[in-house]
Design a protein that fits this description.
- The protein is 33% helix and 19% strand.
- The protein is of the alpha+beta class.
- The protein has one domain (5-359): Jelly Rolls (Sandwich).
- α6 crosses α9 (171-194).
- It is globular and about 60 Å long.
- The termini are far apart.
- The relative contact order is 0.16.
């Protein structure tokens, strides 16, 4: 039986117990109909999003690139320019079927409609594998203020493992989305590597660029005081590339590299949002830049998003690619074991671009 709203507000232990230990997540809080935000979610003033000061910048946004002629020089230039100047872009006519995108969105909603005790089977404490993790916020044990988000994170090892361990309600749809996006990922990486004078992606480079994949099913419930909290705090991804599917609610904001202002990424029907991750910034020696992004909380609607994180393998060592520095360019980053880099990211709360300093020379 869920506790009453008054009981939840009376004790910080009850909040964490209800949200984390009992598996209700912030969706459970929202479903209770709470009228005010629990103090555990109130962010410091500097981390809150001021819509009034950012409204004038919403007229601008990241590039939208049509990939129907992906080998056209104008298209390849647009992709490389976006990776350098924005770190983010949207793609349309990318070849991933619309029904695949709609199915995985529906499957995300279906997972979060499961009873709390069902979702709890996939929590850190109860999951039979580290490859499957249901949780809330980012790293609750080290965060001073929690984020208003629940997630299911699925690390792809093999079809057989997914078939036996991923939640049945979303397994097939998540796998189909991963597999359907592989062709466009390879096309984008080919374009971006050509921009670094890497003319061929052999098996070794393919492993370092896209040797592992993780898909997250993210849920951002309606929030009673969205101005006081965040869906996701400021961060850059640790991936090579991230391929994000948004619903039509919106709420993703990107830090413009030049102006440092926050720019909204409006949902475009059928599009995928692509962003450069830290691993690609390191491998490109800073030519392609991972940028800060965040998700605001919403007071009117429930929002979902489904990112695929395309990563090196945990056992890979990443550093500036040989082709990038062979002309004498000074390395900005050292070689680091990718699993060490990822562990450093998850040891702390979201803190903008601070993680990449771990790899600096």
């Amino acid at each position: 039986m869920a506790p009453s709203i008054s009981t939840i507000h009376s004790s910080p232990l009850n909040i964490l117990d209800f949200v984390v230990n009992k598996g209700h997540g912030v969706k459970g809080l929202s479903d209770l109909g709470i009228k005010t935000l629990p103090y555990q979610y109130i962010q410091p003033s500097q981390e809150r999003f001021d819509h009034t000061t950012n409204e004038e910048f919403n007229k601008d946004s990241i590039p939208v690139i049509d990939l129907s002629k992906w080998d056209d020089p104008k298209v390849t230039k647009a992709v490389c320019d976006a990776a350098e100047k924005w770190g983010f872009f949207q793609i349309i006519n990318h070849g991933v079927p619309m029904h695949v995108l709609e199915n995985v969105k529906d499957a995300t909603h279906n997972f979060y409609e499961l009873p709390a005790e069902e979702k709890l089977k996939y929590s850190k404490e109860q999951s039979v594998t580290n490859s499957v993790r249901f949780g809330t916020s980012f790293t609750p044990e080290v965060e001073k203020a929690l984020e208003w988000k629940d997630y299911l994170s699925l690390f792809f090892v093999s079809d057989d493992e997914a078939a036996s361990l991923w939640p049945p309600v979303c397994r097939n749809q998540a796998l189909e989305y991963i597999k359907s996006s592989e062709t466009v990922v390879k096309k984008l990486l080919k374009i971006l590597m050509n921009g670094l004078n890497v003319k061929e992606i052999d098996k070794t480079k393919e492993s370092i660029l896209m040797g592992s994949k993780r898909i997250n099913l993210n849920y951002y419930p309606k929030c009673p005081n969205p101005e006081l909290t965040v869906g996701v705090g400021r961060h850059s991804d640790v991936s090579t590339l991230t391929i994000l599917l948004q619903d039509d609610i919106g709420g993703l904001y990107v830090r413009n590299i030049d102006s440092m202002k926050w720019v909204h990424v409006p949902p475009v029907n059928g599009s995928l949002v692509i962003n450069v991750g830290d691993a690609l910034q390191i491998m490109s020696n800073g030519k392609y830049e991972s940028v800060e992004h965040r998700v605001i909380a919403n007071g009117n609607d429930n929002r979902i998003s489904v990112p695929i994180f395309v990563n090196p393998r945990p056992s890979d060592v990443i550093g500036p690619l040989a082709e990038v520095i062979e002309s004498g360019e000074k390395p900005i980053y050292k070689n680091v074991l990718y699993s060490d880099y990822v562990k450093h990211f998850f040891r702390k709360a979201h803190d903008g671009k601070a993680t990449v300093d771990f790899a600096k020379v």
